[in-house]
Amino acid sequence: MRILFYFLPKLAVAAITMLGVSALVFLSLRMIPGGYADVLLGPFVTPEAREAIAVRYGLDQPLLIQYLNWLGALFQGDLGVSMVTRAPVLDEFLRRAPVTLELALLALIVALAGGLPLGILAGIAPPDHRGGLLARLVGALGASVPDFVLGSLLIFVFSVWSLWLRVGGYVGPIEDPVGNLRVMLLPALTLSLFGIALVLRTTRDAVLRVMTEGHITTALARGERPIDIVRLHVLRNAAIPVVTVVTTYFGFLLGGAVVVEVLFSIPGIGFFIFSGLENRDYAIVQAGVLIAAAVFITINMLADLAYALIDPRVGSGRH
Amino acid sequence: MSHIVTCENLVVTYRASNGPVRALDGVDLTISEGETLAIVGESGSGKSTLGMAMGRLLPAEAEREDGRMDVAGQPVFDIAANDLRELRRDLLGFVFQNPMVALDPTMRIGRQMQRAMGRRAGSEEIHALLERAELDDPARVAKSFPHQLSGGMAQRVVIAMASARTPRLLIADEPTASLDASIRDKVMGTLCRLRAESGASLVILSHDVHMIARHADRVAVMYGGRIVEQGPTGRVLDAPVHPYTRALLKAAAGHEKPGDWLTPIPGTPPLLSARCAACSFEPRCTVSEENCHTTRPEPREVEGREVLCLLAGTQTEPKEAAR
Ligand SMILES: Nc1ncnc2c1ncn2[C@@H]1O[C@H](COP(=O)(O)OP(=O)(O)OP(=O)(O)O)[C@@H](O)[C@H]1O
Ligand SMILES: [Mg+2]
């Protein structure tokens, strides 16, 4: 009941946000100089040819009509047709989504596996502890090394000494699970370094904050062992900020990691939207941003739900 | 009479960012089995530091520089972590100022009670203990989260948790200060009743002179990290000897309502960074003399209590009525 009342307004807000995003995407794309005709027909396009293209794709209509047409089609599950390949955009996305999803999951797993334990350790270890130093080093590295730098470095190293892992030459996980892992591991690792640092720092700060809370003193005063204090009191109380950044990070990964996908030639959503933008293929970019926004909003709502499950005070009106 | 607490020349310093703060400047104190001792003093005099030191619950930046604290015969600052945990679990019980802070907001009361009572405690035992702390609907309380309770109820839970394993020493740091004035007496009554049932010793750290007068057998007055006067409650409150105790009582005397906090005395208490080589109250003292400024007072027996004042009990002491 508490969770329902807390959740319903958030659903309404999400719907409004989606509408806003759709309008924004639609408008901003039409603000970019150069249109589809320029890309398709080259710089020496005649006005007649340009006209013909515009009529063919409805680009001669008033913007509002174009927008409403697009929205109407969206509600029927029609994301439009790619102007370049003529294939329905939805099909193209569905074909690429599993690739990006796999990459995102791999990166998330690595980020959690690295960031959580190091963050907890850094939060509870005394300042001169060796694990704490390692955590600080990883945190600083992850926050300061951009993904294209790390990616380029890895590509260089693994192109010279193949070392089992492969750069480029994507194969699907169904045809060749091992080969798929060999291709996906490096981009996932590249993507996860930032995630490790993000999770690590957030976890450490949250743990440090909880450790100074009064109920930890109470637990110490009744003679709890340190491991039980961490397990029973620290983790749950520190979880909310960690859930926030982990979900945001995952949403960011699912939206398509453009740089890393392009760098490693991974045919995922990021790569797809990137080429769509290059070709002024409106339908693809519009749909891509909209899907990314929908994924992001859904994930944030799941995070809101997680907050309510973690902290009994959330949504109870007394905080 | 045996002692549950023996504290000898205890010195505790906080390493703060703007230099060290010597919160305890050589505390000598003994607490007998079964007695109720009140420790009073202005804000910053070191009460909480002393109370927490009894369970070695000081924050990481606090350091014991000198002296010792024996609780139930064990030197708390020198025993192994395991022994310390057992001591805290089996012999000590702490009640903190704000129960909403002292309870884990994400864990149900019943579960927290069980952690305090031990794994074998079933819901019947938990309910029985909550009932002993005068919580009327123990089943509902056990199912609640802390934010669903009133402050008074939450403090009763904390009191129940502190008494869960029949401790021999209860330490209550301003146990009613965060509560509504109308329920302070009742909650204090519960604490004292549970103490009496177990025969534990009780240390109350408080500003509230009237509450102390009602409940404490003995009073210790703290100033500048030392105990400047200690003795039987009646004797200390009715005929204070130390100029600081007098000022403290006078400040509280005007508007005698239960629950009133002491109004401050002119001047500010000292913030020590090193051992005080004189009487730390001398700058605010109205009767001080030349050597108060140069000599560190040591405990002396005056009129049936222990006092840290060079002038107490001497001819030069101006006799003034405390009340
Ligand atoms: N964690 C800390 N870091 C630095 N200084 C501290 C810390 N805790 C306490 N102190 C200082 O130590 C001195 C004694 O503090 P303590 O909390 O023991 O006093 P108190 O008598 O309990 O005061 P109050 O009535 O305000 O609770 C104060 O000067 C305080 O500023
Ligand atoms: Mg205090």
UniProtKB/TrEMBL annotation, chain A:
Gene Ontology cellular-component annotations: plasma membrane
All residue ranges annotated as the ABC transmembrane type-1 domain in the record: 97-303
InterPro entries: BPD_transp_1_N, MetI-like, MetI-like_sf
UniProt topology in membrane: Multi-pass membrane protein
Record's keyword annotation contains Aminoacyl-tRNA synthetase: no
Stored Gene3D superfamilies: MetI-like (1.10.3720.10)
Compartments it resides in: Cell membrane
GO BP terms in the entry: transmembrane transport
Main location: membrane
Keywords for the protein's UniProt record, in alphabetical order: Cell membrane, Membrane, Transmembrane, Transmembrane helix, Transport
Membrane spanning residue stretches: 103-125, 137-161, 181-200, 258-277, 289-310
Pfam families registered for this protein in UniProt: BPD_transp_1 (PF00528), BPD_transp_1_N (PF19300)
Tree of life domain: Bacteria
The family this protein is said to belong to: Belongs to the binding-protein-dependent transport system permease family.
Protein name: ABC transporter permease
Lineage of producing organism: Bacteria, Pseudomonadati, Pseudomonadota, Alphaproteobacteria, Rhodobacterales
Automatic annotation (TrEMBL), chain B:
InterPro entries registered for this protein in UniProt: AAA+_ATPase, ABC_Ni/Peptide_Import, ABC_transporter-like_ATP-bd, ABC_transporter-like_CS, Oligopep_ABC_C, P-loop_NTPase
Entries under Pfam families matching the protein: ABC_tran (PF00005), oligo_HPY (PF08352)
PROSITE patterns reported for this sequence: ABC_TRANSPORTER_1, ABC_TRANSPORTER_2
Recorded topology in the membrane: Peripheral membrane protein
Catalytic activity, as annotated: Ni(2+)(out) + ATP + H2O = Ni(2+)(in) + ADP + phosphate + H(+)
Entry's Gene Ontology cellular component terms: plasma membrane
EC number: 7.2.2.11
Location(s), subcellular: Cell inner membrane
Gene3D superfamilies (UniProt xref): P-loop containing nucleotide triphosphate hydrolases (3.40.50.300)
Single GO biological process annotation from the record: peptide transport
Record-level Gene Ontology MF annotations: ABC-type nickel transporter activity; ATP binding; ATP hydrolysis activity
Keywords (A to Z) from UniProt: ATP-binding, Cell membrane, Ion transport, Membrane, Nucleotide-binding, Translocase, Transport
First-tier enzyme category under EC: translocase
Domain ABC transporter: 5-249
Matching PANTHER family: NICKEL ABC TRANSPORTER, ATP-BINDING PROTEIN, OLIGOPEPTIDE TRANSPORT ATP-BINDING PROTEIN APPD
Assembly description: The complex is composed of two ATP-binding proteins (NikD and NikE), two transmembrane proteins (NikB and NikC) and a solute-binding protein (NikA).
Similarity comment: Belongs to the ABC transporter superfamily.
Protein name: Nickel import system ATP-binding protein NikD
